[in-house]
From TrEMBL:
<dbReference type="InterPro" id="IPR039420">
    <property type="entry name" value="WalR-like"/>
</dbReference>
<feature type="DNA-binding region" description="OmpR/PhoB-type">
    <location>
        <begin position="151"/>
        <end position="249"/>
    </location>
</feature>
<dbReference type="InterPro" id="IPR011006">
    <property type="entry name" value="CheY-like_superfamily"/>
</dbReference>
<feature type="domain" description="OmpR/PhoB-type">
    <location>
        <begin position="151"/>
        <end position="249"/>
    </location>
</feature>
<protein>
    <submittedName>
        <fullName>Response regulator transcription factor</fullName>
    </submittedName>
</protein>
<dbReference type="Pfam" id="PF00486">
    <property type="entry name" value="Trans_reg_C"/>
</dbReference>
<dbReference type="InterPro" id="IPR036388">
    <property type="entry name" value="WH-like_DNA-bd_sf"/>
</dbReference>
<dbReference type="Pfam" id="PF00072">
    <property type="entry name" value="Response_reg"/>
</dbReference>
<keyword id="KW-0238">DNA-binding</keyword>
<dbReference type="InterPro" id="IPR001789">
    <property type="entry name" value="Sig_transdc_resp-reg_receiver"/>
</dbReference>
<keyword id="KW-0902">Two-component regulatory system</keyword>
<keyword id="KW-0597">Phosphoprotein</keyword>
<feature type="modified residue" description="4-aspartylphosphate">
    <location>
        <position position="74"/>
    </location>
</feature>
<dbReference type="InterPro" id="IPR016032">
    <property type="entry name" value="Sig_transdc_resp-reg_C-effctor"/>
</dbReference>
<feature type="domain" description="Response regulatory">
    <location>
        <begin position="16"/>
        <end position="139"/>
    </location>
</feature>
<dbReference type="InterPro" id="IPR001867">
    <property type="entry name" value="OmpR/PhoB-type_DNA-bd"/>
</dbReference>
Length: 249
C-alpha cells in the first residue's frame, strides 16, 4: 500500500518529477500544475518518504517507480529536512537535478542550498509559471550531452585535478570540493590565466538559464580559496582582477 501523501505517477515516457512538500495545498498545486504540463509526477510529504522513493528509483526493486529526472525539494520537511536530504543524496552519488524550495530567501540560505548540491533555488511564495520555467530549464541542462574529457589529469602548479574521478589534490593532499566548486576549478584549470567575468562564470558553471545572484560566484571563489590557498586573504592561485573578474594564476 502506498503511503499517505504519495501520488502515483502515470506510466508514459514523459520526464518523471518527484515533489517533496509537507504542505498539502502547495504539494497538490505543484503536482496539478506539472501534470497539466504533461510531466509524470510523484508527490510525497516528508524527507523519509522521499529518501525511500529516490533509493527505490535507483534499483531494480523500484517496481513502478522509474528513474527520476528532477527532484523538487522543500527545505523544511518532517523527519529529514531538505538540506540534510540533499546532502545525503549527493553523498550517495545521485546526480539528478534538484530544485530547492523554501520560505527562506536570504542570500545565505540560497548559497547554502547550492553549496550542498542543489542545482537551483526558488523562494516562496512563487508563481507556477516560474516554477515550471525553472523545471524546464533544469531538465534541458540535464539532457545536454557532456563534453568528452580530453585529459585524465589536469595540473596547475601544486593543484592536480582528476576529471574522470572528480578528485582534487593540493600539495599532495586531497581536498573535498562540492560539485559546483569542482566544475569552477576545472574551468579555471583548463584556461589558466584567462580572466572570466562573473557573468561568464555563471553561464559556464551554473548554465545560461540560472536566475540567481552573481554574488554566488564570489561566495564560491571564497570557499575555493579557503581550500586551495595557504593564505586565502593573499591568494596565489585564484586572483581577483578588479573591474573584470577572476583568473587562475
Amino acid at each position: 500500500m502506498r503511503s499517505p501523501g504519495v501520488t502515483k505517477p502515470p506510466e508514459d515516457s514523459q520526464p518523471f518529477l518527484v515533489v517533496v512538500e509537507d504542505e498539502s495545498l502547495i504539494r497538490e498545486t505543484i503536482t496539478m500544475a506539472l501534470t497539466d504540463e504533461g510531466y509524470q509526477v510523484l508527490a510525497v510529504e516528508d524527507g523519509r518518504q522521499a529518501l525511500e522513493v529516490v533509493r527505490a528509483s535507483c534499483t531494480s526493486e523500484g517496481g513502478n517507480i522509474p528513474a527520476i529526472d528532477l527532484l523538487i525539494l522543500d527545505l523544511m520537511l518532517p523527519y529529514i529536512n531538505g538540506l540534510d536530504l540533499c546532502r545525503l543524496l549527493r553523498q550517495e552519488g545521485m546526480t539528478t537535478p534538484i530544485l530547492m524550495l523554501s520560505a527562506k530567501g536570504t542570500e545565505t540560505d540560497i548559497v547554502v542550498g547550492l553549496e550542498i548540491g542543489a542545482d537551483d533555488y526558488l523562494a516562496k511564495p512563487f508563481g507556477m509559471r516560474e516554477l515550471i520555467a525553472r523545471c524546464r530549464s533544469l531538465l534541458r541542462r540535464a539532457n545536454r550531452q557532456p563534453q568528452p574529457q580530453e585529459q585524465l589529469v589536469i595540473q596547475f602548479q601544486e593543484i592536480v585535478l582528476y576529471p574522470q574521478e572528480c578528485r582534487v589534490t593540493v600539495r599532495d593532499k586531497a581536498v573535498n570540493l562540492s560539485p559546483k566548486e569542482f566544475t569552477l576549478l576545472e574551468l579555471f584549470m583548463n584556461n589558466p590565466r584567462r580572466v572570466f567575468s562573473r557573468d561568464q562564470l555563471l553561464e559556464k558553471v551554473w548554465g545560461i538559464d540560472f536566475m540567481g545572484d552573481s554574488k554566488t560566484v564570489d561566495v564560491h571563489i571564497r570557499w575555493l580559496r579557503e581550500k586551495l590557498e595557504l593564505d586565502p586573504s593573499s591568494p596565489q592561485y585564484l586572483i581577483t582582477v578588479r573591474g573584470f573578474g577572476y583568473r587562475l594564476g
